[in-house]
Amino acid sequence: xxxxxxxxPGWRLAAQFHAAPAPADWREALAARLGQRPRRLxxxxxxxxxxxxxxxxxxxxxxxxAGALLRVSTLYxxxxxxxASAQQCQAGLPMPFTFMQxxxxxxxxxxxxxxxxxxxASFITGRDTPAxxxxxxxxxxxxxxxxxxxxxxxxxxxxxxxxxxxxxx
Length: 169
Description:
The protein is an alpha/beta fold. 38% of the residues lie in helices and 24% in strands. A 5-stranded mixed β-sheet has the order 1-5-4-2-3, sandwiched between helices.
């Protein structure tokens, strides 16, 4: 959990979304919101997209504002897709499509596409999850970004959790 939201001069928290655990129908809700199920995404990337979209919807934002920064963190990332890909390779199968789902950049590309945004995005795997919003707010302030979408997505077996915050100047 990202924990208590930091306060940062000049910034206000526009919206938050937290699902721990994700509701049983989260994939159906995402497909309904997007008008179709996202194609060729792994469950972890879909979960991140679900949380980010829910946060923007809570703020009444149809797209991520131009010039916004996007920062995503995780403790576990694409572990399940990576394991599945390795098992398929060990079984002698050609490079499986699952391999693409093991690449965190696929999640960032999906977020950009489905949030109607292009810009500065990054992903970090680490244990100090409360530090990400603080670091991201400092970075957004330094580059004079008008907004910051910061989130986390976790897939560990059947445990799915996602947490997002949208910050505005």
